[in-house]
Write a structure and sequence with these properties.
This protein is mainly α. It has 2 domains: about 1-225, no CATH class; about 250-430, no CATH class. The chain contains 18 helices and no strands. The protein has helices at about 1-5, 10-50, 50-70, 75-85, 90-125, 130-155, 155-160, 165-185, 190-215, 225-250, 250-260, 260-275, 280-295, 300-325, 330-335, 345-370, 375-395, 400-425. Helix 3 packs antiparallel against helix 10. The model has no long low-confidence stretch (mean pLDDT about 80).
Length: about 425
């Protein structure tokens, strides 16, 4: 590689290509290791927890995701957007991050108060005792607060593309999570022990992230009212959509939780665990692609070209993932154990839905981090109508039905975000 680079040292395109190959190769290999560690942890939980306990585990983790989305409400995107403007100034970047963290804490308290009663209700609905329900809720709190601060702490290294430090942190975090999960689950096969093990590992991960951020941020800064106002302008536009996403983003689990049985909840949770392998691409997007896209100049031709190049790459990856699943469903299902061996068709639908979610999520993230935020008054009615129409023509009381509905919603979301991106880019002046 060095010989080739020397021959073309005056060709920026060749140099940039090799730098990207090296960067993606490093990040991709680290993410494969991270996802493998996460998969092993998840498989241990699936195989060692009884189906009922795993259903409780699935419900608790779903609510954890809901709390994190509500507590963020656009704060991380707003902080990224503001940080992208001052990313080379340690003091000003420190002010932006301090403001983002301060807002996150306040939103977190409101999120916990709102979501906790729903979690207790669903756990009780599926047969959990009051003691078990309270223990599961309490076990979520460490994971919840550390997940919130972790996403903000990652922004400075991401903006400076300190990929090695981020990937090292991620690998060590997942090794710790696997160790703690293994240690606890063999001795105490209860859902709340598995959840709290993850939270404890994240605490260490956040301490390490703070050390990494010190290279790029002056952490002695205080929240700034002007920056808060700018971030809250993002929140006002994103929060309604985030509330909707809490429902639509986990529509399979929500519908199964209310209309299905406890065994179906465990099944959809187990299939979702296999779908986490798609997270390799999601992490590459959030770590490498989205921050760079946020830094691009306002050239509508270049933005459009790069946006659809990214979408094409994700589409090809999705086709490959679904194809492999179609050819080897039994081998893949063997991973999660004999209790789930008869879910071949459901597995294919789950992976296809995950790929559509990856496309939709990528188009949303790319747009938002450019400040192109679709008004909730447009997005929410469209998806609500989509869910209602889908529920009328599909039997959502079965696992197969909710997975089919998830596909239907995913297609509509992708079309909606594509159309909006094209509309906003065409309004850019001067290019």
């Amino acid at each position: 590689m060095k010989t080739v680079l020397q021959k073309h040292k005056n060709n920026p395109a060749i140099i940039n290509l090799f730098n990207w190959i090296k960067l993606v190769g490093y990040t991709g290999s680290a993410q494969i290791l991270v996802q493998f560690l996460g998969l092993v942890s998840g498989i241990l939980v699936i195989r060692l927890l009884p189906a009922t306990e795993y259903a409780f585990y699935t419900l608790a983790n779903t609510m954890l995701g809901t709390m994190v989305v509500l507590a963020d409400g656009g704060i991380s995107s707003g902080t990224m957007a503001q940080g992208g403007k001052v990313w080379q100034d340690k003091e000003r970047l420190g002010i932006v991050l301090a403001t983002g963290l301060d807002l996150r804490k306040k939103f977190a308290i409101a999120s916990l108060i709102i979501v906790a009663p729903f979690l207790i209700y669903l756990l009780r609905h599926h047969g959990a005792s009051w003691v078990m329900s309270i223990l599961l809720l309490a076990s979520l709190i460490p994971a919840f607060y550390t997940a919130l601060s972790g996403t903000i702490l990652q922004l400075a290294p991401k903006l400076h593309q300190d990929i090695k430090s981020l990937q090292r942190n991620n690998v060590y975090l997942n090794i710790g999570r696997l160790f703690l999960t293994t240690l606890s689950i063999f001795i105490f096969p209860w859902a709340f022990f598995a959840i709290i093990s993850s939270g404890i590992a994240q605490i260490w991960g956040n301490l390490d992230l703070r050390k990494i951020s010190l290279k790029y941020v002056d952490t002695n800064q205080k929240p700034d009212p002007v920056v808060r106002k700018e971030i809250l302008s993002f929140v006002k536009r994103i929060l309604p959509g985030a509330i909707y996403y809490c429902v639509s983003g986990q529509i399979t689990i929500w519908l199964i939780s209310f209309f299905g049985n406890t065994n179906s909840v465990a099944q959809v949770g187990a299939l979702g665990r296999l779908g986490m392998l798609l997270g390799v691409i999601g992490t590459l997007m959030s770590t490498l692609v989205t921050p760079r896209f946020a830094r691009l100049p306002n050239d509508k031709n270049k933005l459009t070209k790069i946006f659809f190049q990214i979408q094409l790459g994700l589409t090809l990856f999705g086709c490959l993932a679904v194809g492999i699943t179609y050819l080897f469903p039994n081998q893949i299902l063997w991973i999660i154990g004999p209790e789930y061996a008869n879910l071949q068709t459901e597995l294919i639908l789950c992976i296809a839905g995950g790929c559509l979610g990856l496309l939709g999520g990528a188009s949303f993230a790319l747009s938002v981090n450019r400040g192109m935020i679709m008004a909730p008054i447009l997005t929410i009615p469209v998806i609500i109508v989509t869910i209602i129409v889908g529920a009328l023509i599909i039997d959502v009381s079965t696992l197969m039905g909710v997975l089919e509905l998830n596909l239907f919603i995913g297609i509509v979301e992708i079309l909606m975000y594509y159309i909006y991106f094209i509309y906003r880019v065409r309004k850019i002046e001067g290019q």
